[in-house]
Amino acid sequence: IATRARSHMSLASSRLLSHDLGDGVYLCLLEESDAPSLIAALDANRAHLREWLPWLDANTTADHSLAFIRSTREGFARNEGYQTGIFIDNTASSSYSSSSSSSSSASSALSSSSSSSSSSSSLQPQPPKLVGMIGFYNLNRMTRSVSMGFWLAKDANGRGIMTRAVLAYVKH
Prior knowledge:
- The protein has 7 helices and 5 strands.
- It has helices at 2-13, 35-44, 46-49, 62-77, 94-97, 102-115, 161-171, and strands at 19-22, 25-29, 82-88, 129-140, 145-152.
- The two termini are 31 Å apart.
- The model is unreliable at 1-10 and 93-121 (pLDDT under 50).
């Protein structure tokens, strides 16, 4: 367990603007290496998110996600707002892991069937899973206003994740 906690902490602490929301959930600025994870999360949740995200169908490749990540990093550097990914450390959050999405159900089934034959395979650290985004944009210092946008994967709903993320942003 200590190794799992260190793994989570070292990943979160190695990222710019990281904030721990508790229960293995944290926010951090996306890095270019997150582009495949971002498009995978969007692809797995298109039907669920389409109603609220008009830009969704224009983001269909890892290159689109990479361009988005770069633009958010540039906006952060210009102090125009910031957007962070919402990550779940799968080793720390058993409640999230137990209700997998269709995109990860095959790997979950594989994990559960192989756990009976080898308990050591369940000790392998899993990379944190990108399950959403939240951010401030359209920052206007003159009117002291900002817009907030967010989305969350369907299978991460109902756990208070977005509530905690919004509170962290509002308190900031």
